[in-house]
Design brief:
Layout: H1 3-7, E1 12-14, H2 18-21, E2 31-36, E3 42-47, E4 54-56, H3 75-97, H4 104-119, H5 122-125, H6 129-144, H7 150-161, H8 165-182, H9 184-191, E5 194-199, E6 208-210, E7 214-217, E8 227-235, E9 238-243, H10 255-274, E10 279-282, H11 294-304
Antiparallel strand pairs: 1-4, 2-3, 2-10, 5-9, 6-10, 7-8, 8-9
Helix pairs in contact: 3-4, 4-8, 4-9, 10-11
Length: about 325
């Protein structure tokens, strides 16, 4: 890859977009980021939203053949993810300021954005070296079996030297990512749920993390219908709850629903941490309170996820 081609790509490509994380950034210093340091202790740092939740060239298309460089390596980022995020950012502003202004297009944009967070993550897109080697071996064997003589075999081997099998699988994963994000089944399920905005209690703030959304499933149900509820912090003071609208006990006037909302508001941070956050983001420096030892919970949650450091690097400022 030439330097000129590299410079055409957005270097930092975010799997949790900046427009979402900006909600946790303080006016003066940014947001607080928590993960594990190399010796297993809690690493905390106040950083800007653009300095976290990214990987270099995460969505860039690679050249699959050495003599055919990609003319638009940033196509996935600029033509697909950027418009998706732009629409979602507009929807988020309405969710926070005036949910009644949400149009059907806004709701679909936000639902698709939530779906994208699962598919665009580095862990989902990672191509293990063992899979690349298996693919290379299988493809080589299949192609060599079609050669009729030594000359054709020699030509094939020279051609294979120019093929980047890792790039082929890298690009394939990103093509599948885009297809899955466009898949309407999960988005339709979220659109079929009722959306409620819950406010944080005075003196209490919602944290967010990687991943930011919580899915509540009924595993006895097949397909996306098993998604019974989803919750995601919108900013430190507001939480979006998506829940079924057709069950009697989910009525907003019912005591069970009110109890659920109260519990979610009070304990959402703890539930988010127990869901296995890889990184935690907060508006203020986390501290133990009289009811919830949030700092202790953050540290213990990240330690439980410590093994994930073998497959997911820490963000680099």
């Amino acid at each position: 890859m030439t330097r000129a081609t590299q410079n055409q790509r957005p270097r930092k490509q975010h799997y949790i977009p900046r427009f979402y994380l900006k909600g946790w950034a303080a006016d003066a210093g940014g947001l607080w980021r928590y993960n594990l340091n190399p010796v297993g202790g809690l690493d905390e740092k106040q950083v800007g939203p653009g300095a976290v939740a990214h990987r270099e060239y995460l969505y860039s298309v690679k050249s699959e053949v050495s003599y055919m460089p990609q003319t638009r390596p940033d196509q996935m980022e600029t033509d697909f993810l950027a418009p998706l995020d732009e629409k979602a950012a507009s929807a988020l502003r309405k969710l926070i300021t005036n949910p009644a202004e949400m149009s059907a297009e806004d709701r679909e944009a936000w639902a698709q954005f939530l779906h994208s967070l699962r598919e665009r993550h580095p862990n989902t897109l990672e191509v293990p070296t063992s899979e690349v080697e298996q693919y290379r071996t299988h493809a080589t064997q299949q192609l060599r079996a079609t050669c009729r003589d030594a000359d054709s075999l020699a030509r094939l081997d020279r051609t294979l030297e120019d093929i980047n099998f890792e790039a082929m699988m890298h690009n394939g994963r990103r093509t599948v990512m885009a297809r899955r994000i466009r898949d309407s089944a999960f988005v339709d399920r979220l659109l079929g749920l009722k959306w409620e905005i819950l406010d944080a209690h005075p003196g209490y703030e919602f944290i967010t993390g990687d991943p930011p959304a919580l899915l509540y499933r009924d595993t006895s149900i097949q397909g996306f219908e098993q998604v019974q509820m989803l919750s995601v912090p919108l900013n430190p003071s507001k939480l979006l709850l998506m829940h079924p609208s057709d069950a009697p006990h989910w009525s907003p006037e019912g005591s069970e629903f009110r109890t659920l909302c109260e519990t979610l508001v009070r304990f959402h941070n703890v539930v988010l941490l127990r869901n296995g956050c890889r990184t935690v983001f907060s508006h203020q420096r986390v501290a133990d309170g009289p009811v919830i030892r949030l700092r202790y919970a953050v540290e213990e949650s990240l330690r439980m996820r410590g093994s994930a450091r073998n497959t997911l690097e820490l963000d680099r400022e």
